[in-house]
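INFO  loader      accepted 1 record
INFO  loader      residues=499
INFO  predictor   begin
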Amino acid sequence: MKELSHWINGENVKGKSGRFADVFNPATGEVQAKCPMASAAETEAAIANAAAAQPAWGATNPQKRARVMMAMVGLMNRDMDKLAEALSREHGKTIPDAKGDLQRGLEVIEYCIGAPQMLKGEFTDDAGPGIDMYSMRQPLGVVAAIMPFNFPAMMPLWHVGPALACGNAVVLKPSERDPSVPLMLAELFVEAGLPKGVFQVVNGDKEAVDTLLDSEIVQGVSFVGSTPIAHYIYSRATANGKRAQCFGGAKNHMIIMPDADMDQAADALIGAGFGAAGERCMAVSVAVPVGDATADKLIEKLVPRVEKLRVAPYTDGDDVDFGPVVTREAKERILGLINSGVEQGAELVVDNRDFSLQGYENGFFVGPHLFDKVTTDMDIYKTEIFGPVLSVVRAKTYEEAIGMAMDHEYGNGTAIFTRDGDTARDFAHRINIGMVGINVPIPVPLAYHTFGGWKKSMFGDLNQHGPDSFKFYTRTKTVTARWPSGLKEGGEFHFKAMD
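INFO  predictor   done
INFO  writer      dumping tokens
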């Protein structure tokens, strides 16, 4: 049985706590590795190493830090196939999905090459008589990133990249469900020129997390996961005086207007609703057609598409649409919610509750499911399912449709499909959700814009990547300077004392 490690001070270090978490192969249900769970002492040692390495890294000029990011881009491209295979093996994603995970993380590292530009301060000449005023951005020091299982490459890179580019040292706590790729990325950062100790990877559970949250050394915390845990981490981190950005759950609506291209809308829903087995915080899990005629057309388009989806392990090739979910517990939870939808009166149009894959009967596969006539009081509507389940909620009017998205407790992403510019503009301006797509089902911004939700999808003031990330990982210091004027006496230059 393979035993994974921590990454401490630039080296793989075996766990000492004696506690381990099982890392499964989701396709077979078999345990393929053991992941060490760090004790408080091990976590504190990682924090101490980061604190020792940070001052020299923070004093390194931004251009040299940017060169590390530039080298990292080349190394990730070199090892893309190896990284993708490791990611798929532990998570269950198809290889194309795994490469997409890596690519979106890589784009943030590319953005970080521009760190010298992003870290420039402001300057005012002659703010007063003989007075200049300027600001500078300085790193927080040591920061922590606590990341989820569903994007084991993208999410760490979204946080670690900007934090390092700003001159911080980082302690990463990845998901114990798929920890291998974060450890591989840590090795690549050192190969790219990052000094040892600046980036630590500590595998663990609540003991490690609470140690990071309570440490007086750790100055900032980033988290991505479920809303209850996001709220817990935000509350504990800020109570301890830390800067925090914590991103939680989602329930993303896609509104389909009567004038929409139904084939385009149906194709978009298939990719956005079922890609990566629905284990995306930006997955579209609710389709809201406006009018029964629109809904009937949409269902007619969706059913054959859903029925044709191919569910299989990533090893079956690139034509697999999605693979298993991450754990047996996740599978059981998803099927439980599907059953609740049937019990509460929704119409299960495509039913794959008995899905089983020959040769992989013990794997964590969940077939695609399509519900129609879901109502807003049902559990499958209110809850983030995080599985391959699409719910169609019929709205009579545009106002009713937009009201559903606006009234939901989550506000991560949303989309509208329409040919009418006035409707699209009204939707974009009125909706109380952080990321909006117009004829784009998953409106994930590119790396040079910011990513983040509203309402219970996000706790904190600054979002992920883009300019917000450089603001989050730095403090602004403003300097007001006055130099005393000189008097020439006897051919020599003398300074008057400042008043």
